[in-house]
Amino acid sequence: MSDSEQYVILEGLPTPQVYHDLRKLAGMTPPPLEAVPTSLANSFVGIVAYERKHMLNDTTPGPEQTAVGMGRLVGDGALFLILVDIAVHPEHQRRGIGKRVVQRLVDYVDEHAPWAYVSLVADVPAQKLYPQYGFKDVKPSIGMFRMKRGRRIQDELAEGAEQEA
């Protein structure tokens, strides 16, 4: 069975705990768990990946099954969207799951919000992924962020950006 046949990619959202854990396992900053339910509820769309061998059928994960990959779009649903949370469990990386999740999200935008400006922030390892789906560098503009939560985290992110420059 090929890698693409081993996984099912569905529209939906992970549970708050799975969302938190997938971000952490994928090397992304884990969010405060108490904020996750509200965040997920405000998604424009979510995409999750599951192992096919644990599915009850083509659209229903098994009762104990957890997502092995995910991605979301957030925003106003028409003109401005942000692609976020592309994360794949380390044991399932390098099997095309991230690419399939991004493709489903791009297809969703094309169908449901064709005039949307879709933006994202990509860590260095993922920067080669997104141009395949039509994303372009924003130069001469620059990306910026503000995060009240965790001054230490904000300082670490800023320091990492300076080292890459």
TrEMBL record:
It comes from the Eukaryota. SUPFAM superfamilies: Acyl-CoA N-acyltransferases (Nat) (SSF55729). Pfam families: Acetyltransf_7. Residues 23-152 form the N-acetyltransferase domain. This is Acetyltransferase, GNAT family. GO terms for molecular function: acyltransferase activity, transferring groups other than amino-acyl groups.
